[in-house]
Specification:
Blueprint (H helix, E strand, L loop, with lengths): L1 H40 L4 H29 L1 H19 L5 H28 L6 H9 L1 H14 L7 H20 L7 H6 L6 H6 L4 H31 L4 H25 L5 H21 L4 H25 L6 H31 L4 H6 L2 H17 L9
Helix pairs in contact: 1-2, 1-4, 1-5, 1-6, 1-7, 2-3, 2-4, 2-14, 3-4, 3-7, 4-5, 4-14, 5-11, 5-13, 6-11, 10-11, 10-13, 10-14, 10-16, 11-13, 12-13, 12-16, 13-16
């Protein structure tokens, strides 16, 4: 009976975190989905549009480390609920914005909530699952994000002309599920030895860099930063790059949906495989396939069917990289500082996500075509792969270890 109850608790935790991840995926891509209607309506210049897109990323940089640090002190469930309410309220309020200043301020608030949710979802999914199934738990949780992105993109494909629709959806859904999270989700279990040490939690710098964790922290930051740079470059620029190669906007939207749905497959597949004895091989395959699929995307002919297929494969690769990193990240820190450690890694990754679209903008502005931009992403994926491979070699799958 105890084992059955334990499995039920793990399943419920992962399911709730998956739902939250779906809503997070919707809100992460809401601005991009609304942009074709929103930008001309508010007469935003290219510079203002860039600031609008970057506002939520700046919020993510604030929300992830702060929420992770607080979660180590007041509990992960509470901070997840607070984050849900934050990004729900601000996303819903965005639908009622009436100028550039209010749009940017509300996206900043949305980003703070989005950033606060992710490290707590990762920690809750891992800490409430059996050691031999924690990679799968993280993969199942994380696949909700690209699924949410696909749902947001579907708004465009369905042809709705009201830019507010995606913000109504992205704001109301997390507010509706917040009471469920508070009532049904249980706090992480904390081993007795670490519970005794909890009052003596170290400061952030000591948690990240002392007691032998400095190298792991830097490797984790490298892997997160470089892989998210490529991911967010694609999320923001892939449709425009495809249109510049002669594909229609409708096909470009379909490719983006395929990219997100491929991400669902990649997240679940890697989460399932990485719990076995071949974690290093899974990590190598994940990054190698990403490089291969990106090369194919750069070299492919401008044919709709080919573009949709290759776009889906790129989504499999790039999202599987993220699933690998989210499975490895909790291994780098003991439970009493895990929220701060994972939150800091997520924040650094979001710094990469802020840089990625800017890099693409600079390359396109300098006259590089779509193929050049994509080819230049290959070594960046390679740098992220190095950090992930070293961590796969050195971190053992023991979530109760003191670090």
């Amino acid at each position: 009976m105890a084992g059955f109850a334990e499995r039920n608790r793990s399943t419920l935790t992962v399911l709730i975190c998956f739902l939250v991840a779906v809503f997070e995926g919707i809100d992460l891509q809401a601005a991009g989905v609304a942009a074709p209607h929103l930008l001309p309506l508010f007469h935003l210049s290219p510079v203002q549009a860039g600031q609008f897109f970057s506002a939520s990323t700046l919020g993510l940089l604030i929300g992830a480390p702060v929420s992770g640090w607080l979660a180590d002190r007041v509990g992960r469930k509470l901070m997840l609920v607070v984050s849900l309410v934050l990004f729900g309220v601000f996303a819903l309020a965005t639908a009622f914005a009436d100028d550039f200043t209010s749009l940017s301020a509300l996206r900043l608030g949305t980003g703070v909530g989005l950033g606060g949710a992710l490290p707590n979802m990762i920690a809750l999914a891992t800490e409430n699952s059996r050691p031999e199934r924690r990679g799968l738990a993280v993969g199942l949780m994380y696949c909700g994000m690209p699924l949410g992105g696909a749902l947001a993109s579907l708004v465009t494909v369905l042809g709705t002309s009201d830019w507010r629709t995606v913000f109504y959806l992205g704001g109301a859904a997390p507010l509706l599920v917040a009471p469920l999270v508070m009532l049904a989700l249980r706090e992480s279990r904390q081993p007795e030895a670490e519970a005794a040490d909890a009052p003596r939690r170290p400061g952030v710098l000591r948690a990240l860099f002392l007691d032998g964790r400095g190298v792991n922290t830097l490797l984790l930051w490298t892997a997160f930063g470089f892989t998210l740079l490529v991911l967010y470059l694609l999320l923001n620029w892939l449709p425009s790059l495809l249109v510049s190669r002669g594909l229609s906007r409708a096909v470009a939207s379909e490719v983006q949906i395929a990219f997100n749905l491929g991400g669902v497959v990649g997240s679940v597949l890697v989460g399932w495989l990485i719990d076995g004895r071949h974690r290093l091989a899974v990590t190598v395959a994940s990054f190698a396939l990403t490089i291969g699929f990106l090369f194919a995307l750069a070299a492919m002919p401008a044919a709709p069917v080919v573009a949709i297929l290759v776009g889906g494969l790129v989504g499999v690769g790039i999202m599987s990289n993220q699933a690998v990193l989210y499975a490895i990240a909790p291994l780098c820190y003991p439970m009493n500082v895990r929220g701060a450690g994972v939150g800091a890694a997520v924040a650094v990754g979001r710094l990469g996500s802020l840089i990625g679209p800017l890099v693409a903008g600079q390359l396109v502005g300098a006259g590089h075509d779509a193929a050049d931009v994509l080819f230049k992403m290959l070594p960046i994926v390679g740098v992220g792969a190095v950090g992930a491979l070293i961590l796969s070699l050195t971190r053992k799958p023991d979530f109760t270890a003191a670090g």
